[in-house]
Amino acid sequence: MDTIQLDIKVEPRDPWTEILVSQLAEMGFDAFEETEQGTKAYGPAELIDMKEVLTGTWLGRGRLELEEGACQISYEQKIIPYQNWNANWESDFQEVDVEGKLRILAPFHEKKGDGTLEIEIQPRTSFGTGHHQTTWLISRELLHLDQVPSVILDMGTGTGVLAILAEKLGATEILAIDNEPWSVENAQENVARNQCEKITCQCGEEELLKGKTFEMILANINKNVLKHQLPVYASCQENGGLLMLSGFFESDVDELQSHAARYDYVFDGLSTRENWAMLRLKKN
Predict the structure, then answer these.
(1) What pTM was estimated for this model as a whole?
(2) Helix (H) or strand (E) holding 118
(3) Which partner from 41, 96, 161, 207 sits 20 to 30 angstroms from 129, CA to CA?
């Protein structure tokens, strides 16, 4: 599938860029790259209606005025063919370090073999290479657990990196789900690349969770999807089960926490990075 890229310039950059990214995430854009002048937004070309984006966000207005001030917005749009997107990933992909405890590498990076945990990810179109703040936050949270639960769901697995990390940290049964076939294919490739044997990758959505129970659920998606799927997560967890949510901004934490409380989840921790958030909840 081709990808829409929007190169967006916002003046002044803060705090308007963060709010615009939140709007675009709700319109179907699923990856963002911070720039000095704003952000680059990426999303599946076949699924995004740019007319709807321009009317439903500030992007089509060119200027926004609120009590807090005003900003100017401009953008350039282009389509990145599927093969070119892969090539861009391979040329730009940098090693990811998570507090010196984990390195996320591409096949063309040199392994150091110094005892640090290493995960090799082929950087294709799937989300979840570890570069994004939300993937980094959940990775760090898993590394900080005294003991990783045995049975885990990785919802919206993307490249499979979180599922792979969970197995390397001791999980014995992991279901990795994504609703995009190419993401599932990429995850399966990365599972094999890392010699993992406890991960099952499936294509679909919450219908795949019926009748299943998980000790911990990882969901790095976006706010609206998380709110929609929270009752399903709750039905799959017994008391004491852990739920780690990310894919949203600090400004969304109160809303998600309040929504999760309706399904007997209680606050168990929060971490942030560059305005993105990771919310840890426990089933009460």
Answers:
(1) 0.72
(2) strand 117-120
(3) 207
